[in-house]
Design a protein that fits this description.
The complex is a heterodimer of chains A (389) and B (133).
Chain A lengths: L7 E7 L10 H16 L8 E3 L10 H6 L7 E3 L7 H14 L5 E8 L31 H16 L3 H15 L13 H5 L3 E3 L2 E2 L9 E8 L1 H6 L5 E11 L13 H12 L8 E4 L4 H10 L8 H5 L18 H5 L7 H13 L13 E9 L5 E10 L1
Parallel strand pairs in A: 2-3, 2-4, 9-10
Antiparallel strand pairs in A: 1-7, 1-8, 4-7, 5-6, 8-11, 10-11
Helix pairs in contact in A: 5-9
Chain B lengths: L19 H8 L4 E5 L5 E2 L14 E5 L3 E10 L7 E8 L4 E6 L12 E8 L5 E7 L1
Antiparallel strand pairs in B: 1-2, 1-3, 4-5, 4-7, 5-6, 7-8
Classes of the chains: A alpha/beta (389), B mainly beta (133).
Amino acid sequence: MSIKGKAYIVGAYEHPLRKAPNHSVSQLHAECAKGALEDAGLTKNDIDGYFCAGDAPGANVWSMANYMNLKQLKHVDSTDMGGCSYLVHVAHAAEAIAMGKCNVALVTLAGRPNSEGSSGTQVRDRGANMPDSPFEMPYSPVTVNLYAMCAMRHMHEYGTTSEQLAWVKVAASHHAQHNPNAMLRNVVTVEEVVNSPMISDPLHRLDCCVVSDGGGAVIVAKPEIAKSLKRPLVKLTGTGESTKGQFGGNVDLVYSGAAWTGPRAFEMAGCKPSDIKYASIYDSFTITVVMQIEDLGFCKKGEGGKFVADGNLIAGSGKLPFNTDGGGLCNNHPANRGGMTKILEAVRQLRGEAHPAVQVKNCNIALAHGTGGALGHRHGSATLIMERE
Amino acid sequence: MATPAQDRKLRDPSLNPGDQPYFDACAEGKLLIKKCSDCGEVHHYPRALCPFCFSDKVNWLQTKGTGVIYTYSVTRRGGPVPYCIAYVTLDEGPKMMTNIVDCDLDGIKVGQKVKVVFKKTENGASVPMFTPA
């Protein structure tokens, strides 16, 4: 079903902490929920739909619903799509609202990987019964080398260079300098990125996102409620969700599921990539941005490196202002899941509430796109298109 | 500057029902994939149902143990020693995740021809890896 015009994002909140050793994960989730409700001008008792993913304690709905004492839930959803779960949740919330299942849906994300010592070079146990595990775990796949293999193949097929990838980080750093909460606020150069230590060929330390604590939340509401509130109206107009894997051995690492979710979202929204004034693009690594920009149709396949070069992602001067909060590369990556913060900055841009130095003029259509899992073996993809009304 | 591949501790595969014949073959120096006798497609990692047609008539097929590197990355930080993760395109078709070993890690190239070798995990299981042919 189309969600176009069926629901609005009425509340948004980003937790200010980047290291929270004395907060419980539940507390972080609840503080984000509280912040989003205050932003919307709603109260806890208004919530009748709740969405959370694997970062929520217990990876279920009832633990956090119980902690927050949400008593009137009529629709719940604990879909876990890794880092893009929250984009999926917003779309599912809009569908649930359109079907009359709920009126005000809360989506929360929070985690403490910074305090817990998480790193993208650690082998993560993915649990029992995983069919792929015996055929992969002996080889030590870790987050960074799974993306690095995509980058290496992308360079081989299309001639993408390390300097082009570095421009993604450079642009993010230009934005992060204006965000007082960002972990990395220093503007960096292409030279600094390519001269930073090699982590996993061809990705350098500065090609990688930060590891941060924190979280965020959004509230999705039906049109009548959204229009009764005092906040600028952010209407949901398009969405797409999918997964991509290894195709039984026919592995192709140069494109992502965005190649499917992007066109579906644009069709639903009735717009095209050139209409997008601002884009939040998941930036776990610089290569993630390049591949997704291609797959979403902002440029031809294989030309993402050229597209991002020379500052084209920098707000004010570039063709496609992206991640104006500094993104995962500089600002934060709470719970190692960047989908929520991608929605939050898109909402700020559409409301005209981004930092004045990075606010896109007349920002009436924005896109947020996320991945979950790893582009190097199996991942989820989700796209949201939103319009200011 | 060379980065010689070093032996490292390898995680034991945590087997699911149906996986044992693959690792038994590895112990005998054979690399198996699966072939569907209904649709004729080969696949990897091995499954009980063909991922192309859902037939359950899937059988083990011994590969030549040769292929080319589809992509790779030398992970230089985070582990006790640098190591090279890769996908190798087997001559039979499927690409498989693996490590490239017994070579200078700085000399590895996409498209390079490789052949299978078997390495022992911590508790003695054999797993297939590849080295320049």
